[in-house]
Design goal:
By secondary structure, the chain is of the alpha/beta class. It has a single domain, classed as Alanine racemase (TIM Barrel, Alpha-Beta Barrel), CATH 3.20.20.10. 35% of the residues lie in helices and 16% in strands. It has 9 helices and 8 strands. An 8-stranded parallel sheet has the order 7-6-5-4-3-2-1-8.
Length: 207
């Protein structure tokens, strides 16, 4: 959890303005708040943040209990099927639908819109639908699919992520999907160049 002293509204606003120089206005900036305490969220709003993404279902509910009206809320973490009932009614988008068990739960607790997480790089043990299985997975999803999300292999070289972002954009185009959630603090600029419509940023906003 970030120390309260690290969340300064003026610094957030300055960081956001600098990032916006590389991110066009039509691309949404989703502030990842997994490590931001609930008490620090008002500073993000004061700094100009409008969209936040939480990784954990319980934390989402706790933070919304205090500050629901400050932001638009997305869920960006790995989603356990038993948590669908807690998450789906409380967010605009779920970025991380990737399992048949979640699809089954969505039949009982519909979400307004979801993104399918795709394991573009084929990493073993990583969440995400294989590209070859995507058509069938989308067809079986009981709620509207608005787009795709991916998390490429970690690298310190943003250019190493470019092929994975480009492939996700190709898959979205093939399936007529508009939203592309891709890019984090270290590679968001490359993601935007490859067609991202949402970038998920954490430390670069707060430091």
């Amino acid at each position: 959890m970030l120390d309260s002293s690290m969340i300064d509204a003026a610094r957030v606003r300055s960081n956001l303005e600098r990032i916006r120089e590389r991110v066009p206005p039509e691309v949404e900036i989703c502030a990842a708040v997994k490590y931001v305490a609930a008490g620090d969220l008002p500073a993000l709003a004061e700094g100009g943040i409008e969209l936040v993404g939480e990784n954990r279902a319980q934390a989402l509910l706790e933070k919304q209990e205090r500050h629901r009206d400050l932001f638009t809320w997305d869920f960006i973490g790995a989603l356990q099927s038993r948590k669908v009932k807690d998450v789906a009614p409380n967010v605009r988008l779920i970025h991380s639908v990737a399992s048949d068990s979640v699809l089954r739960r969505l039949e009982a607790t519909p979400a307004p819109e979801v993104l399918i997480q795709v394991n573009v790089a084929g990493e073993e043990g990583k969440e995400g639908v294989a590209p070859a299985d995507l058509t069938d997975f989308i067809a079986r999803c009981p709620v509207p699919v608005g787009g795709l999300m991916t998390m490429p292999p970690f690298t310190e070289d943003p250019e190493a992520s470019r092929p994975h972002f480009a492939r996700l954009a190709e898959l979205a185009a093939e399936h007529g999907l508009e939203r592309l959630s891709m890019g984090t603090s270290q590679d968001y600029a490359v993601a935007v160049e490859e067609g991202a419509t949402i970038v998920r940023l954490g430390s670069i906003l707060y430091a």
